[in-house]
Structure prediction request, 276 residues.
Amino acid sequence: MNDLKAAIITLILLVTFHSIGFSQDESDKSFIVSGKVINPETLEGISFANINLDDTYWGIICDSLGYFRLRINPEQKLKISAIGYKEQIVAVAEPSAENEVFQEIFLERETYMLREVDVYSLGSWNDFKEQFTKQEIPQEKNIAESFDFGKLNLEQAKAKTLNHGGFGLSFGMFGSGKKRAKGKLPNPLDDLHEQLLANKYNKQIVAEITRESGERLDLLMKFINSQTNFTYQTRDIYIVNRIEQLYNKFQQENPSWDYDFTYTDSLGNIPNHLRP
Prediction:
């Protein structure tokens, strides 16, 4: 009885494997195509021509004599290209009896039109050196000529004079402005420096980096200002890194739950989460 079961199982396995192999043979209809890419003028092979399957990125390169060999599926075409020759798409006929096809492919020459260039004969190195030293070079315009340094220096001199006291200080004491009270007049250069710094470091930038807002953002700004001394020359990346470092320190000294009372219940009592 056991021998009969073993024979039946063996027969079933043989039939199964045979049907699988037959179906694979039926589905695989690919064949091998080999050939040679030839120059029609010299009838010699074109070295290292590109053989690609049309509409794909798959392909091979010919050898130094122009021969190639690859496997393709029915109805696939070959796209042949080489430097100095026109690209050509070739249809391949399916083999009738054998599983391989040999095909010769002739490519036409192609001429590339380049831009026109001027070629000069300068003779020896001494001739070239002599002509090079005699060549006139156009003078470049000095862009600094448009700057009014005299007016800028005058404004700086006025500001320095008033900083040391004198009439600027005496009249400034009766004014309402903070700068006049200290004997200072607005300096265009200082205003420019303040604008440059304001573009790098301001409350909005700190809010975008830290995601803070409201009173807590005001406290953070005071904390950062007390720990830093940014100028218009400070690099942007340093300012961002320094803000992140000080924000981490600020969180340790001022945790967020100091300003967040949402954890209380409706009666204002704090639940004991440690109780089992």
